[in-house]
Amino acid sequence: MSEKVLLVDDEREFLEIMSERMRARGMIVTTTESADQALSIIEKESFDAIIMDFQMPEMDGMEALKAIKKKRPELQIILLTGYATVEKTVEAMKIGATDFLEKPADLEALVEKIKTAKTEKMLLVEKQTEEKIKDILQRHR
Amino acid sequence: MNNKAKDADGAQILAAAGMRFFGRMSASATHEIKNTLAIINENAGLLEDLTLMAEKGHPLATERVKDISQRLARQVHRADLILKKLNRLSHSVDLTRELVDLEKAVIFVLDLAGRLLEIQQVTVEITPPLSPMVVDTNLFYLQNAIWLAIDMACCCADQEKQVKISFGTDSTIPSVWFSMGRANKDKIENTIKDLFESKEDQALMAYLGITIEKNNKNNGFGLLWTKST
Question: Domain range for residue A85?
Fold first, then answer.
């Protein structure tokens, strides 16, 4: 099954080409130029992974990461960044980023990370479902 | 502390202020260059994808290749402009003192910090001086002071995020004024205090012979060259 990806970056040209190349690899790609728009998109749709630039107008990557994780904790977020400091990387991972990739990124490496993210998301959803079932069963005992 | 030690201490503080400014500008510029490299990288990858498809028998769309080539040229030009700005900033340390046109210096700093302003979503409007306003100063540190003022003005800009820059009319006291429309007055008070709060800012303004004053409308502040450097 195709991976469903949300690509968030304020560089329109980057979005256009990256999404075209990802689609050519069988992925279903939605693009947006702002973190604010990404937040409203994830309310309506589900994704296997979000690929997001770390520095954007309106909301920086760290704020966006926190907001997305608050709304949809199961979403896997891979951050793309021009330059990642160790401190920022650690902070982002603590908040819940799945992975980091430095720009310019190797698409094949990114595809691998998206596949891993999809597996992790599926496991997480499975775990959440199991817990819900356990909870329902306990309530009915 | 004797005078020599005081001078050395002051020089070190000033250097730290300069390093902080240079670091901020170069971090922003290199981030933008990384973005252009990322687009170049994706275009090169797209060319590779199209070539592989052509090898498998799909016809190669020449219009597409032409479009990619134009995109590549555009990004190379963009990166070149960023590097030119960074290079100009680097060379601004070449002379200890020179005659600087204040309007040109402001325009250059705005251009240099374009991405930082874009991220803050601030628009800046400049009203040129009636006649060129020239100061004999250190260009690098002058740019540092202008950036500091722009950054402070952006912080207290109202929701419309507009900053207006103008120049004084008194030719004996060159000045640059920053106003923020319906800016928060408390924030402006704090901004002016902030500009003098850190040792670095104090050393910078003292070195350049700049004093800071609130404007008449109480919605901004100005940098005034009350004494020559």
Answer: 4-140
Greater model confidence, B229 or B10: B10
Residue A61 in this model has a pLDDT that exceeds 90 = no
DSSP, collapsed to helix, strand or coil, labels residue A102 as: strand
A103-140 tens-digit pLDDT: 999 999 999 999 999 998 888 888 888 888 988 888 88
For residue A107, the chain B residues in CB contact (below 8 A) are 42, 45
Q: Supply the CATH classification number for the domain B98-225.
A: 3.30.565.10
Size of the A and B interface in Cβ pairs below 8 Å:
58
Radius of gyration of chain B (CA): 22
The structural domain count of chain A equals 1
- Top residue of A13, A22, A56, A79 to mutate, by most chain B CBs within 10 Å, is A13
Q: Would you call B120 helix, strand, or coil by DSSP?
A: helix
Collect all residues from B whose CB is shorter than 8 A from any CB in A. 27, 30-32, 34-35, 37-43, 45-46, 49, 71, 75, 118-121
- pLDDT higher than 60, residue B20: yes
Burial (CB count <10 Å: 0-12, 13-18, 19+), residue B187 = middle
pLDDT tens by residue, B62-121: 999 999 999 999 999 999 999 999 999 999 999 999 999 999 999 999 999 998 998 888
H/E element, B13: helix B3-55
Q: How far apart are CA B180 and CA B160, in angstroms?
A: 9
CATH number at residue A59: 3.40.50.2300
Which pTM value belongs to this model? 0.84
Q: How many CB atoms lie within 10 A of CB B96?
A: 11
**ipTM of the complex as predicted:** 0.81
